Amino acid sequence: MRQGDQGSEMYVLANGAAKVERDGRQISTMAPGAFIGDISLLSDGARTATVTLTEPSRLLVVGHREFHELMDEMPSVRNGVLRSVAEKLRRLEAERPH
Q1: Does a structural domain hold residue 1?
Q2: Do 49 and 72 touch, CB atoms closer than 8 A?
Q3: What CATH number is attached to the domain comprising 52?
Q4: Any idea what DSSP says for residue 40?
Q5: Within 10 Å of residue 59's Cβ, how many Cβ atoms?
Q6: Is residue 25 domain-resident?
């Protein structure tokens, strides 16, 4: 996915690896179990980063409607997504010049 594009789905990295870039600079890597694209689904906004697979990987796709149904029906999924978003925000805040 590319930073700035509109997102209508999120992904769960089932296996493999990915790198995350923001404004052309690598800010993170992702391992199995990572949520990708969750921020734009929560905010109904543009992708906040570019994510590129760095090895053969398998992704599970969750569409917009299914994402929100999962969040309503499964508190453990909601908690995992919110925890993931909080960790991403912490990393971004730590990199921001003060």
Answers
A1: no
A2: no
A3: 2.60.120.10
A4: H
A5: 17
A6: yes
Q: How many domains does the chain divide into?
A: 1
Q: How far does Cα 15 stand from its chain's mean position?
A: 15
pLDDT by residue, tens only, the chain of 98 residues: 999 999 889 999 999 999 999 999 998 899 999 989 988 888 888 998 999 999 999 999 988 888 888 888 988 888 888 888 888 788 777 766 65
**Looking at the domain assignment, is residue 76 inside a domain?**
yes
Instruction: Please give the model's pTM, rounded to 2 decimal places.
Output: 0.77
Whether 90 maps to a domain, the answer reads yes
Contact 39, 85 (CB under 8 A): yes
Name all contacts of 58-63 with Cβ < 8 Å and 24+ positions apart.
Answer: 58/13, 58/14, 58/15, 58/16, 59/11, 59/12, 59/13, 59/14, 59/16, 60/11, 60/12, 60/14, 61/9, 61/10, 61/11, 62/9, 62/10, 62/11, 62/12, 63/8, 63/9
Domain coverage including residue 28: 9-95
For Cα atoms 71, 91, 70, give the angle at the middle one, nearest 5 degrees. Answer: 5
